[in-house]
Amino acid sequence: MRDAAAIDVAAFGPLWGHDLRTLNATRGATASSRTRGVRRDSRLAGFVIAGRTGRSGYLQRLAIDPERRREGLGRLLTVDALRWMHRTRCIDVFVNTSEQNQAALALYGSLGFDQRPERLTVAEIDLTGGASAP
Ligand SMILES: CC(C)(COP(=O)(O)OP(=O)(O)OC[C@H]1O[C@@H](n2cnc3c(N)ncnc32)[C@H](O)[C@@H]1OP(=O)(O)O)[C@@H](O)C(=O)NCCC(=O)NCCS
After folding, report:
1. What is the mean pLDDT of the chain?
2. Rounded alpha-carbon distances, angstroms, from residue 24 to 2, 93, 120, 125
3. Which residue from 11, 28, 71, 119 lies 20 to 30 Å from 47 (Cα-Cα)?
4. Number of neighbours of residue 81 by Cβ within 10 angstroms
5. Alpha helices in 89-128 (DSSP H)
6. 4 Cβ below 6 A of ligand 1
7. End-to-end Cα distance, the chain
8. Ligand 1: does its nearest atom lie under 6 Å from the Cβ of 7?
9. 63-77 pLDDT, tens digit each
10. DSSP letter for each residue of 63-91
11. pLDDT of 133 strictly over 90
12. Mean pLDDT computed over 27-33
């Protein structure tokens, strides 16, 4: 998981990347979860965290080392996660990503995900005493 956290920060950047603690918290966000990694040359090259609550599956986290992209690893891990969800009787699977994330959108689209009509907004409030703090 330590190596996975390093890949996560490399993949998502310092703002959105998870460290070991928050990555482990992600694994606890659903009733059950499954983490899988893939190695290349004896090193972790990517990982996926899949979750399940009730009969819905959630692709919670997917990241591939920037140096190992376009080798089919993202697809491999996603298919592995979908198979686990199918085997454990999920009836649908959700994932969210940025509208700008062309790589992820193409990957999920190629696997049969349909984009839902909702558009999510990411909001932030500064609680450290800024002018807009409540
Ligand atoms: C999205 C991500 C997981 C894809 O991993 P990957 O191992 O490079 O993807 P794959 O090699 O398995 O590619 C599978 C398909 O995804 C699409 N794809 C992947 N990278 C792409 C890119 N840069 N541009 C367009 N399509 C892309 C293609 O359809 C590709 O199939 P093809 O190679 O036959 O054309 C990887 O780019 C990543 O870690 N990005 C940062 C983190 C992230 O965005 N995670 C998912 C957010 S929910």
Report:
1. 95
2. 10, 21, 24, 25
3. 119
4. 25
5. 102-110
6. no
7. 37
8. no
9. 999 999 999 999 999
10. EE-GGGTTSSHHHHHHHHHHHHHHHTT-S
11. no
12. 97
For atom 23 of ligand 1, the residue with the nearest CA is: 103
pLDDT band at 126 (very low <50, low <70, confident <90, very high): very high
Distance CA 72, CA 67 (A): 13
What is 2-110's CATH topology? Aminopeptidase (3.40.630)
Q: Where are the domains of the chain?
A: 2-110
Which residue's structure tokens are 């919670």?
60
pLDDT digits (tens, 9 = 90+) for 91-116: 999 999 999 999 999 999 999 999 99
Question: Does the pLDDT value for residue 134 go beyond 80?
Answer: no
Name the nearest CA neighbour of 67 among 41, 105, 48, 93: 41
- Best mutation site among 69, 78, 111 for ligand 1 pocket (most ligand atoms within 8 Å of CB): 69
Distance 24 CA to ligand 1 centre (A): 23
Query: With a threshold of 0.90, does the pTM exceed it?
Result: yes
